[in-house]
Amino acid sequence: MAGAALRLQNLFEQLLGAPLPVRIRAWDGSQDGPPDAPTLVVRNRRALRRLLFKPGELGLARAWVAGDLDVDGDLYTALDLMAGLVWERGEDARTLAGALRDPEVRAAVRGLVKLAGPPLPPAPPPEEVRRGRGHLHTKRSDRRAISHHYDVGNDFYELVLGSSMVYSCAYWQVPESEGGTLEDAQRDKLELVSRKLGLSPGQRLLDVGCGWGSMAIHAAREHGVSVVGVTLSQEQAAYARKRVADEGLTDRVEIRVQDYRDVADGPYDAISSIGMAEHVGAERYLEYATDLYRLLGPGGRLLNHQIARRPRRDESAYSVDEFIDAYVFPDGELAPIGTTVTQLERAGFEVRDVESIREHYALTLRRWVANLESDWATALRLVSPGRARVWRLYMAASALAFERNRIGVNQVLAVKTTEAGGSGLPLRTRTWN
């Protein structure tokens, strides 16, 4: 009888309608597939049962997180090769029901069932979000979602993010290949945001989704502003407050565990929202934009730094990525940049500048993955193996998505103009005075 690897290659080819572009090594030690390609390691039959009970991305994600599936070789190459068959089949891809009308596909499914063994659905890995009932993006549900992602241990985030402790796209004026460092690039990003906001001594800045305090500290230390930073993460807030105290900035920086919807002590001269708006949700986005508009004084500036997806022909068909929703950012949603600009304008803002820094995020993510992989043993001590595998996969896959222009990231500068229409901005905005 043929080994499990050859049987899997044949069955997957029948199911996908194309050759599998990676090599397979199965639990019985057999191997098959292109000899020079990365190897998809199927450690046990349970991986097949996960795919059968949850066909598609969620089944693959569960098998990966549980350690039933692995990759031997370059992870980026493996993901790139598999993307066209698994993650990019597109809006015109065959549905499962339609595919099962094909006799060859039905035969392949029966073959997988036989190869998988006893038909018991494996329990999801413990890292998967357990969802309750209720509406999305209430204050309570947002607190739970933020806690799932951010309250996994500050030591783990230090390992991944490095000393800057900035969890958003860096700004690489000097690429790493030419001697640039992640810390330099993150500092330059914070300075870029500060210059776009026109920060100057005596002003008040609201940092929405302040993370571990890096933007608040930079703005206060380098530009002399008073800062209120808000986060829903208790662990982030505790870490940020200690950093603020260590910098001697407690008289100028206040870190709150607070929902942005509850901030009521405006007006502020400027608002930074860096990597936070992805958590807001489409149904709440106008409320988000309106709240920030309310909190600014006349002439106040908003810098909204946000990941964007490509628009769909039918926007009503958009659904959140299953792996990301279940393991990374529960309830997170991405919108096209045009939608974001429209909602900001509906709230009353004048949008003055949009800058895409998509390639910068790919460079940032690759550095985070390298940090994680270089100290994998420590990561496994700090979090569960499943959690470490989640972070490695999502960051590597995201790096490729930014490189291939499947998603982007943009800095949107918007202004609450005065009654007379004044923006306070120079005629040539990119001078950032």
Automatic annotation (TrEMBL):
Q: What is this organism's lineage?
A: Bacteria, Bacillati, Actinomycetota, Actinomycetes, Kitasatosporales
Annotated Polyketide synthase-like methyltransferase domain residues? 156-414
What the record says about family reads: Belongs to the CFA/CMAS family.
Protein keywords: Lipid metabolism, Methyltransferase, S-adenosyl-L-methionine, Transferase
Stretches for region Disordered: 116-140
Species of provenance: Streptomyces vinaceusdrappus
Question: What is the name of the protein in this document?
Answer: Cyclopropane-fatty-acyl-phospholipid synthase family protein
CDD domains with a match to the protein in the record: AdoMet_MTases
User: Gene3D superfamilies this protein is in?
Assistant: Vaccinia Virus protein VP39
